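PT: before anyone asks, these are the final sequences, not the draft ones from last week. 367 residues across everything. Please model them as a single complex and drop the result in this thread when it's through.
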Amino acid sequence: MDMIGGAATAWEGGLVGLESDVAQLRRGDLDALTALVTRYQNRLYRYLLRLVRQPADAEDLFQQTWVRVAERIGKYDPQRNFDAWLFSVARNLAIDHLRRVRPESLDEPVAGEIEGETKVARLASHDQLALDGILERERAGRIGTLLGELPVSYREVLTLRFEEEMKLEEIAEVLDMPISTVKTQLRRSLLRMRQMIETRYPNEDWNAFA
Amino acid sequence: MKEHGKLREQLSLAAAGVLAPDDEQRVLQHAASCAECAAELEEWRLLAGSLRRLPTPQPRGEVVERAIARAAMRLNEEIEQRAHRRLMISLVAFAWIVTLASWPVFRWVSGDVLVWIDPRFNHMWMCFAVVTVFLWATGGLAAVLLAQRRQSERRLA
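LR: through. Structure below.
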């Protein structure tokens, strides 16, 4: 019970810290800017990488997003959810980028690399739990590759729900669409993902993806 | 049977954890009594779990530092522009107050003092008012157009 209470307090503390950082950023505090970039760096980069798939593009968009945040923070309504606002800023930039760079084939799969694989994940295969590490990487690699092959509208709804753990309302705010449409999109994305798994790995036990 | 099909469609959303509590309860109750749906729900759960556990890629340190530096520079520019805008608005407001306040003074001077020199001065304050309104409106419009142009140039840059 104490642990739950402690976690809840820490979570609330995090929220208060976020609100205070955002309020300070609105006043032009550079320390608050650093705190916010640090807080969101992994989540924002991951989201951008899922959308554009190329690390170099994601890095560029990551920087552009924070420049845009600096420009628009004065107009940000503190009543809004900051996560949703930040991700919608990033999304608009990423969609513009995709339209500009690859308008003819926005959703062509990128062959080869295992999307999202970090050096840490790669190093893990060399330790004592090498086999577990390899299996885990392989599963993540399969799912990551399949995710990368989905259309961008499916990729983004899946990453917002499962990786960012956003609620439907927040996803709807980021994507600027009704909640019912988000639900439909989520269901279709999962269905497509499932169909891809069944087509690509027809004899595989589902537990292999767990 | 119809209910089975309807609930089956919601299995993926139940595994994604986005159903309303009542709907989720209905789906879970159905899955508890339907082996086919229970198996499918389990598969959706495995897929959802594997999506949740995807490795998190991290941006390079120098990219984060560059992002902070670029955003900080933009933030400073934005603060400066905001201060300029505030100053400009205050100056324009002050100028208008002075102009409006000058009309009755001018009216008094032209109607009560200058009229002694020439009766035609009686309506001179109206000309003064029209000229000042015209000048200020033109100046204001020019300032707005210039600001819009600068803003679009900044956006393109």
